[in-house]
Amino acid sequence: MTVAVLGSINMDMVTRVAAVPRPGQTVAGESFAMTPGGKGANQAVAAARAGASVNFMGKVGGDLFASELISSLRTAGVNSDCVRVESKTSSGVAAITLTKDSQNSIIVIPGANAMLVVQDVDTLAEFFPFSTCLLLQLEIPMDVNIKAARLAHQAGVRVILDPAPATVLPDELLVNVDIITPNQSEAKTITGLDANTYKQTNDVIARLVDMGIRQPIIKMGQHGVCWYEDGKIKSMKAFNVDVIDTVAAGDAFNGGLAAALDEHKSLDSAIMFAQATAAISVTRYGAQQAMPIKNEINAFLATRDK
Hints:
Elements: E1 2-6, E2 10-17, E3 31-37, H1 39-49, E4 54-57, E5 59-61, H2 65-75, E6 84-86, E7 92-99, E8 104-109, H3 121-125, E9 131-136, H4 142-154, E10 158-161, H5 171-174, E11 179-180, H6 184-191, H7 198-210, E12 215-219, E13 225-229, E14 232-236, H8 249-262, H9 267-281, H10 294-304
Parallel strand pairs: 1-4, 1-9, 2-7, 5-6, 9-10, 10-11, 11-12
Antiparallel strand pairs: 2-3, 7-8, 12-13, 13-14
Helix pairs in contact: 1-8, 6-7, 8-9, 9-10
């Protein structure tokens, strides 16, 4: 079986600074790097490195970035046959500012990602009869996600939605989503409720269940994760690691989650595996290059069990 991923593919332009400049202020940066990213591609790479067979669909532009972005997918073992080239536009770009306290701010220029259309989904849907999960995010047009979720749900594929960038979600999408994985900020955008404490998070989960989501998972960063299953709200603390870069930590989580579910792990075990995947990723710089391989994740978990 495989994991299907539909989403964005970007070139990340990462600037590291002591502090984000105020309006009108110029500051000296510490370093600059360009690395393959995009929430869809990041999650595809994370899932593949975590042990899953992955089929990815997205679009790149007719520029110098395109070949490098596709090469990064293939190097990680992702099937990129469904990646299309839009020659008359640019590839997606993310301008990322990373501060010394490991916080990031991101500006995304969609480029070719915005050129995905509902007809493109039919190509990826050919893999649904052989897929356990479909990973979706919100850096591509909403109508494309809606169709993909509907076709996957009809095929019995578990649909996992990372609702980022945060926006109000249409019922046509939610009705076909099995698992949603917002962080605290995204959860507030979707539900209108704060998720700053475990008590507040319980209320957010209850609201998401009322909205029709079968298994909400709230990513709480350094505070861990909360989720709902079989009528119960559960929680897990974050692993204690030395954080140096939080870019794509959420993507690492979703990729690890899908890879674990693809192996038919229980949701509890899959979330622990996803937590470990994200924990390792934040100890490294970059997005796709920070994603750990399956043996690393299992070794990490083995040391935490002792």
